[in-house]
Amino acid sequence: MASAMNGGGGGALKRIGPLRLQYYIVMGAVAAAVVLATLRYMPGPAAAAASSSVARPGASAAAPGAEAAAEAEGEEAAAEEREREKRKKKGDGVVLFNFGDSNSDTGGVAAVMGIRIAPPEGRAYFHHPTGRLSDGRVILDFICESLGTHHLSPFMKPLGSNFTNGVNFAIAGSTAMPGVTTFSLDVQVDQFIFFKERCLDAIERGESAPVDEMGFQTALYTMDIGHNDINGVLHMPYDEMIANLPPVITEIKKAIERLHKNGARKFWIHGTGALGCMPQKLAMPRDDDSGLDEHGCIASINNVCKKFNSLLSEALDELRLTLKKSAIVFVDMFAIKYDLVANHKKYGIEKPLMTCCGHGGPPYNYDPKKSCMTSDEDLCKLGEKFISWDGVHFTDAANGIVASKVLSGEYSIPRVKLASLVSTAKSDD
User: Fold this and answer.
1) How many domains does the chain have?
2) Where is this region: Disordered (predicted)?
3) Is 390 known to be catalytic?
4) pTM of the model
């Protein structure tokens, strides 16, 4: 789901007009400095693996009367270490590169724009803000966890990044169409190419790099974008909305072709969700409820989303014919996310169209003039199951449900599981 700082789309990242070139030059310099510093001082895959395998030092001698507590703590630490080793073995050699908007942004927009994302963001899982526009994890985080590897670090995050398992290029507010937002899909692909060239250059000079040539060849390339492009045309008459979709699909197709030209062979592409069920859209003024479907969602918006997914799926079918040695998978995110609303009781969700963190109370608890991160927000209780976190983005709980369906392969074309693309990694030139 999307919308600039409201979820993948438009508000936080404005059109940059004639300053676009100058802005890219500055940001390019920043990106170069960040990545070169990271490549120079970050240990390579082997060094990182050796470092992570070192056991935690033991605790100092327990004070009299605290032996039982110390023993329990030691057992807990040992269990944690065993779990880390198990995950490390499972995820050894797994590499992902992700492109998208706020649906999969793991802190990129906060880092690059210097935005301080405040509590209660992150409260459900990380217990502090991480730059994700959610109370916890995004779907990409669950994908990484399922593969036994750590969460992907944002490309533009200068502190704490670890690129040994790949890079997340997603930035909240991004569009597939170039020239509309600063970090549109074409720019994200440019950043990937820059990262790859710097890694291979470093290895050629005998230096370490977080990802080697084989890592790029066997990596999984995931993409979740286009939601903001749809948001950008929703003010138009229905026929015009539909007419504006093919150029967006063309840009996604071009991005996949560029990535393929640069060695990518395994693609996992998400369609858009049911944007007509978002509290942000439902809270907009309307004359009456005649445009709502049986589950209370805006039918016209959802019809645009379904058309977008149909066009995207067809474009990926065409790419399979031309990029014959590649695996290209489309995931029907609309079917997955709409099911959360239509069958919400099955998932223990009582208020499928209401925002957990917002303003105004029922039925939607969403006010476009106020952010979730203000002191007077109407906040649901911790542990309550909601689909929408802030009116646009999903909660940790909802993203977990969606991710389980994504990983199942039941909503994929062709019908394959994501894990099978990683476990059968091989290089095809």
Assistant:
1) 1
2) 62-87
3) yes
4) 0.80
